[in-house]
Design a protein that fits this description.
Chain A is an all-alpha fold and about 260 residues long. Chain A has 2 domains: about 40 residues, no CATH class; about 210 residues, MetI-like (MetI-like fold, Orthogonal Bundle). Chain A has 12 helices and no strands. The radius of gyration of chain A is 23 Å and the shape is globular. Chain B is an alpha/beta fold. Chain B has a domain of about 180 residues: P-loop containing nucleotide triphosphate hydrolases (Rossmann fold), CATH 3.40.50. Chain B has 9 helices and 9 strands. Classes of the chains: A mainly alpha (about 260), B alpha/beta (about 270).
Chain lengths: ~260, ~270
C-alpha cells in the first residue's frame, strides 16, 4: 500500500469508529441510541467539553502541569539513568553486587508506590516528578547498561592498539554507542514519563490531567473523564511522534528498520 | 635476498618488533599457544605469518598489540621498539557504525590529537587512495564488505603507524575483493614503503604480499622456518599467481605447512 492509501485508510477507520460512537450515544439520530451517553459520552460531547475546558483556562493549565512533571521526570531520569548505567557497565564489582537490587526495584509496581511518594513529597509537583523519574530511570539505566555491555570489543581493541586514552575511548566509542541505545529508548521513555506523572496525579494532586480525570470520575462527569482521556491520548501521540522524528534524525546511521 | 631489494633509507634497518624464544601459555587449562617463537619485523618490510587455523598466529599478534588476557603467562622476550606506533586491522572491519567513511578515517589522526582541520587533511587523500571518494559521506552499513575493509585500511593508514598489524583482514571477503585488496596493499606499498606484520592461513596470500614468510606449525605454535620471497617487483596479486616462480614457492611451502599442521597433534601440555 502507498503511504497515502494507508493514511486515508486510517482516517476512514477513525471516522467510522467516531460515527458509530456518536450513533450509539444517540447524538447522531435523535431518539435512536444504544447506550446512555452518561456511560460512554460521545464525540460531540467531548469536543464541547474540551472547548469549554480550554475556554475556562482549566485544561490548558492542567496540560501544562502534567507536561512539566513528565518532562522534569524525563530529564532527571535520563541524566541519572545514563550515569548509573555507565557506572554499572564500566565497573564490574558494582554490577556484580548491585544488579539484583536494580531488578528488584524496577519490578515494584508504580501505582503501589504512588501513595508513598505523596507521603514523602506532598501533593505538589515533586511527587509526580519522582514517579515519572522512577519509570524513566530504569528504562534509561538498562539501555545505557546494555549499550556499554554490547560495545563491539573489536572496535575497543582497535582503539586500544592505536593508543586511545580512556577519555578518548569513552568519547569516541562508549558515548556514541550508549547514545544510540538511549535514543532507541526515547519514545518509550516519553510515554513512561507521562504515565508516571498521571499515576502520581491520581493519588493526590491539585492540578494536572490525571487530577482532572480522577476528579471528574468522582463527580460522575463522564464527558470530562473522556475529554481528559482524549487529551492524554493526543499528547502521547504528539510527544512520541516527536521522539520518533528525533530518533530517526539522530540515528540516521543505522540500517533502516521497517516497523 | 629480498631485504636487499628494498631501497633502504637507513643503512641498517631497525627491528621494530623482535621476538626471541617467545612463549605464551593461555587460560586455566594452560594451553601452550606459542612456543619459542623467534621473529623480527624490520622497517619497510612485509612479514607474513602463515599457518593453519588455531596455530597461535593471532595470539602472537595480540601479544604485540598488548591485547592478551591478563591471565596469559609469557616467557622469553617480545619487544616493540620505543615510540613505535602500531596500526591494527582486524578481520572484522571494526568501523564505528555511527560515523561516516570520512569520520571513521579521521579517527586515526583524532587519536593522535590533531586538530579537526588536520584530521580532514590527512583523511581525505587516503579515502581517495582506497578509491572511496564518492562514498565519503556514507555510513558503514551502506557499504559492501570489501568497501568496509578499504575504509578500515584507510583508517589504519591515516593513523600513520610505523608498523601495521593485519589479522586476516581479507579472510571474510569474496575471492574477487580479496585479490583487489591485496592489489591495493601492493600498490600502496610501491608508493610508500609499508611495514606490515600480516597474518593469514591463506598461503597464496602470504606469497603475494610477503617479502618474508614465516611458516607456523599447529599448536603449540612455533615458527618452522622463515622464507625470503624473491618474486619480481612490482608485484601484482592477480598476475603473480600464474608464474612458475610463484608455483614453485607455493609447492615448497605447502609441503612444509602440510607436514607441520597435523590436526591430530595435541596442543595441551
Amino acid at each position: 500500500m502507498t503511504q497515502t492509501q494507508i493514511i486515508v485508510g486510517r482516517l476512514l477507520l477513525l471516522c467510522a469508529c467516531l460515527l458509530f460512537w456518536q450513533f450509539a450515544a444517540g447524538d447522531l439520530i435523535p431518539g435512536v441510541r444504544l447506550v446512555d451517553p452518561f456511560f460512554i459520552s460521545s464525540p460531540s460531547r467531548i469536543v464541547l467539553d474540551l472547548h469549554k475546558g480550554f475556554a475556562d483556562g482549566i485544561l490548558l493549565k492542567d496540560v501544562g502541569i502534567t507536561l512539566f512533571e513528565a518532562f522534569a521526570g524525563l530529564v532527571i531520569g535520563m541524566i541519572t539513568g545514563v550515569a548509573t548505567g555507565l557506572a554499572f557497565g564500566m565497573w564490574r564489582p558494582l554490577e556484580q553486587i548491585a544488579e539484583p537490587f536494580m531488578s528488584a526495584f524496577n519490578a515494584l509496581p508504580r501505582p503501589a508506590i504512588a501513595p508513598l511518594t505523596v507521603l514523602w513529597l506532598g501533593i505538589g509537583l515533586a511527587s509526580k516528578i519522582l514517579l515519572a523519574w522512577s519509570l524513566v530511570f530504569f528504562l534509561v539505566f538498562y539501555n545505557t547498561y546494555l549499550g556499554v555491555k554490547t560495545i563491539d570489543q573489536d572496535i575497543v581493541n582497535a582503539m586500544r592498539v592505536m593508543r586511545a586514552t580512556p577519555t578518548q575511548l569513552i568519547r569516541i566509542v562508549v558515548f556514541p554507542s550508549v547514545f544510540s541505545w538511549i535514543f532507541a529508548a526515547l519514545r518509550l521513555s516519553v510515554s513512561y514519563a507521562l504515565i508516571g506523572a498521571i499515576i502520581g496525579e491520581f493519588v493526590g494532586a491539585t492540578a494536572g490531567i490525571g487530577y482532572q480525570l480522577i476528579a471528574a470520575e468522582g463527580l460522575l462527569q463522564t464527558d470530562r473523564v473522556y475529554s481528559a482521556l482524549v487529551l492524554v491520548g493526543i499528547i502521547a501521540v504528539l510527544l512520541t511522534s516527536l521522539a520518533k522524528i528525533l530518533e530517526n534524525r539522530v540515528l540516521k546511521w543505522r540500517p533502516p528498520v521497517s516497523v | 635476498m629480498s631485504e636487499a631489494a628494498i631501497p633502504a633509507q637507513q643503512t641498517k634497518p631497525a627491528a621494530l618488533i623482535e621476538a626471541r624464544d617467545f612463549s605464551v601459555i593461555l587460560g586455566a587449562n594452560r594451553l601452550v599457544a606459542l612456543k619459542g617463537v623467534n621473529l623480527t619485523v624490520e622497517a619497510g618490510e612485509i612479514v607474513v605469518l602463515v599457518g593453519p587455523s588455531g596455530c597461535g598466529k593471532t595470539t602472537f599478534l595480540n601479544s604485540v598489540c598488548g591485547l592478551l588476557p591478563p591471565s596469559a603467562e609469557l616467557s622469553g622476550s617480545l619487544t616493540v621498539a620505543k615510540g613505535v606506533r602500531l596500526g591494527y586491522m582486524p578481520q572484522k572491519d571494526a568501523l564505528l557504525p555511527w560515523r561516516t567513511v570520512l569520520g571513521n578515517v579521521e579517527v586515526g589522526p583524532e587519536l593522535r590529537g590533531f586538530s579537526k582541520a588536520d584530521q580532514r587533511a590527512k583523511a581525505e587523500p587516503l579515502i581517495e587512495l582506497v578509491g572511496l571518494s564518492q562514498f565519503r559521506n556514507h555510513y558503514p552499513h551502506e557499504l559492501s564488505g570489501g568497501m568496509r575493509q578499504r575504509v578500515s585500511l584507510a583508517r589504519t593508514l591515516a593513523y600513520e603507524p610505523d608498523v601495521i598489524l593485519m589479522d586476516e583482514p581479507f579472510a571474510a571477503l569474496d575471492a574477487f575483493n580479496r585479490t583487489a585488496l591485496q592489489e591495493e596493499i601492493l600498490r600502496i606499498n610501491d608508493k610508500t614503503r609499508l611495514t606490515v606484520l600480516f597474518i593469514t592461513h591463506d598461503l597464496s596470500e602470504a606469497l603475494v604480499l610477503g617479502r618474508r614468510v614465516a611458516v607456523m606449525s599447529s599448536r603449540p605454535g612455533r615458527i618452522v622456518d622463515i622464507y625470503p620471497i624473491d618474486l619480481p617487483e612490482p608485484r601484482s596479486a592477480a598476475k603473480l599467481r600464474g608464474t612458475d616462480a610463484f608455483l614453485l614457492l607455493f609447492q615448497k611451502l605447502w609441503n612444509v605447512l602440510m607436514s607441520e599442521s597435523d590436526p591430530t597433534k595435541g596442543g595441551h601440555q
